Amino acid sequence: IPALIFGEAHLPPEIAEVPAWATLVSSMFLHGGFMHLAGNMLFLWVLGDNVEDAFGHGRYLVFYGVCGVLAALAHGVTDTNSEIPMIGASGAISGVIGAYLVLHPKTPIKTLIGVFIVELPAGIVLGIWIAFQFSSAFTASGGVGGDVAWWAHIGGLVAGLALVVPMRRKGVTLFDRGMTRPVRHGPRITMRPGPWSRRS
Q: What pLDDT does 130 receive?
């Protein structure tokens, strides 16, 4: 809850289970329903293992957590008086998207366009998703519209873009350098570019 994080409001003592700062982490593990959770986990499943390969297990865990915390703060600073809770993992997953974009922009992703399934480079698919986030953030009131915290997505994305270079393993190349043919990473799955969460 932004107002709690920035000291603009306080919970009654009897319901304050954890310190406000700790909710920057715990909120990533709460979701608004099965479809909210499933949508977030779908994107993590498709993209996350390849980013983890580039970082190693420990650094990937730190990366994921830092992206999630920075995403929550990015959302909070857009309205520090907001008492609307933000839940969901997609701020952190947006960081994974940013890292994947830097690591594997040429990798083909099966994408549903209308009734056709086509393979497009990840750079195009994720670029469309990024454009949609910025467009929605600037057109939604306060960056929140349709129960989606757009600035959390953008904050996580920027964190992922910034952290991928210093956190990758030594020798891991960027932008699919040295790739001589399309690489099929991770599960082969049809996905539609667009937002996937209710709040974050």
A: 96
Strand bridging mode 108-113 / 144-145: unpaired
Q: What are the average pLDDT values for consecutive 10-residue runs of the chain, which has 200 residues?
A: 90 83 94 91 92 96 97 94 92 97 93 88 94 90 67 97 96 82 50 44
Q: Which residues make Cβ contacts (< 8 Å) with residue 8, sequence separation at least 6? A: 2, 80, 81
Q: What is the pLDDT of residue 17?
A: 82
Give the CA diameter of the chain.
Answer: 61
SS3 per residue for 39-102? HHHHHHHHHHHHHHHHHCHHHHHHHHHHHHHHHHHHHHHCCCCCCCCCCCCHHHHHHHHHHHHH
Within 13 Å, how many C-alpha atoms sit on residue 24's CB side? 22
What's the Cα-to-Cα distance from 58 to each of 15, 43, 166, rounded to whole Å?
34, 20, 14
Closest CA to 68 of 105, 98, 35: 98
SS3 call for 113: strand
